[in-house]
Amino acid sequence: MRKQLETVHHIDPAVVDVRGEIINVFEGRIEHIALVTSKKGSVRANHYHKEDHQYMYLVSGAYESHSCDVQDPTHRTVLQVKPGDIVNTPPLVAHAQKFTEDSVFLALTTRQREQGKYEQDTIAFEVIPGYLNPALKKEVK
Length: 141
What we know:
Number of domains: 1
Strand content: over 45%
Helix content: under 10%
Order of helices and strands: EEEEEEEEEEEHEE
Structural class: mainly beta
Largest sheet: 6 strands, mixed
CATH superfamily: Jelly Rolls
Mean pLDDT: 94
Oligomer: single chain
Number of strands: 13
């Protein structure tokens, strides 16, 4: 049986009235949340996490989310992500985002991102051509 790679789920507003909307973005244990902006054409991630489970909620813009199994890189997915979508990336799934529009997203993670903790859990892995964080250990192939 093949490993479950990234999945995407669209989140509709839970409440809509004359005052606006309430969108329940996430329920569960989260240790870190970051607000990230990305320019059209840029590439982010190109890595995997040994233990961290990551969720990305797209506020505005659009991107392609590429992922593969680190143990079987031929097992790949490409998801088209639009505002209101949340992408679920389990541990040991290499992932990269290519932004097709200027974008804003929330990155929610199950592990803290204090200096050193992120680098210990994150391994550089080129899923698609683009940026690789030089501070990360590289995958030995």
